[in-house]
Amino acid sequence: MAIPPYHWWRTVFFLIPAISLYTIVLGTLSIASSLFEKRGYFAHGCARMWAKLILLTTGVRVDVQGLDRLTARTYVFVANHQSHYDTAILFAVLPYQLRIIAKQSLGRFPFLGWHLRRTGHLLVDRRRPDRTAIFDWAARLTSQQLSLIVYPEGTRSADGRVGRFKGGSFHIALEAGLPVVPLSVVGTRRIMQKGRLAARPGRVRLVVHEPIDTSMLGGTDPKTFGERVRQIIAPEAESDVDVHSRT
Questions:
Q1: CA 92 to CA 123: how far, in whole Å?
Q2: What does residue 17 show for φ and ψ, rounded to 5 degrees?
Q3: Residue 21 CB-half CA count within 13 A
Q4: Cα 115 to chain center, whole Å?
Q5: Burial 130-168 (b: 16+ CB within 10 A, else e)
Q6: Interior CA angle at 66 toward 218 and 81, to 5°?
Q7: Residue 222: how many CB atoms within 10 A of its CB?
Q8: What are the chain's domains?
Q9: What is the pLDDT of residues 37-61, one digit of tens each?
Q10: Do 26 and 46 form a contact (C-beta atoms < 8 A)?
Q11: How many other CB atoms are found less than 10 A from the CB of residue 214?
Q12: Which residues contact 233 (CB under 8 A, 6 or more apart)?
């Protein structure tokens, strides 16, 4: 029987307990704040602190490019998806009140799921999405100057290649006329690969591309628009794929 590598032991006996502690403490504060602060701003501050602690504990450093391109109050941020660490990176780096559309099963997780349910995020049954509820929720985002994070691939990439974008992910932005910001997340699969219980320190990049104005794109086919966004994200997101495959 092979002995697990060092980073497996570090993940199981150090990172998981530490991250669990952060989740319990900050999740409790977040949930408690929802009784008094309905906008979820304090809860988002808890989420940002949670994300920063995860990156610090793991030893992940993020190089950010293009953050100065952001000037509006509300955006739909669209990112490729390589690792469980992607969300922590976006919450830690982007200086916006962020909300996510997550799969319904996440709502069953103690503290994390309770936080998502009570602080303005949306949990969706991907097999039977309630489009009316989704668009009502999106309207509240706009009125409260909140921003949305979307992973249109629908799942994490196993090899770093950017998969096909699902058109449904862009309905909200196109119908509400919200500016879309393509984000290229580079190198997070080296931190924690899909299907492996081992996280390791490392340096990753987040490239913030020029926002796309959708105010005049209401009749655009979401799949066509999604492919346009994917073509912006993929070159940077896949820039380390060949290098990593040779190492």
A1: 21
A2: -60, -40
A3: 7
A4: 15
A5: eeeebeebbeebbebebbbbbbbbeebbeebebbebbbb
A6: 70
A7: 20
A8: 7-242 (3.40.1130.10)
A9: 877 889 899 999 999 999 999 999 9
A10: yes
A11: 19
A12: 78, 79, 80, 162, 182, 183, 184, 209
* CA pair distance 10, 247, nearest whole angstrom: 22
CA distances to 140, 166, 197, 225, 228 from 222, in Å: 22, 8, 35, 5, 10
Output DSSP code: residue 212. Answer: B
pTM above 0.90, yes or no: no
Burial 76-108, CB ≥16 within 10 A → b, else e: bbbbbbbbebbbbbbbbbbebbbbbbbeeeebe
Rounded to whole angstroms, how far apart are CA atoms 71 and 221? 27
- What percent of the chain is predicted at pLDDT more than 70? 89
Task: Write the pLDDT tens digit of every residue in 134-144.
Answer: 777 777 777 77
For 58-118, the DSSP string reads HTEEEEEE-GGG--SS--EEEE----THHHHHHHHH--S-EEEEEEGGGGGSTTHHHHHHH
Query: What are the pLDDT digits (tens) for 67-92?
Result: 999 998 889 999 999 999 999 999 99
Residues 109-120 have a mean pLDDT of 72
Q: Which residue has the tokens 């952001």?
A: 70
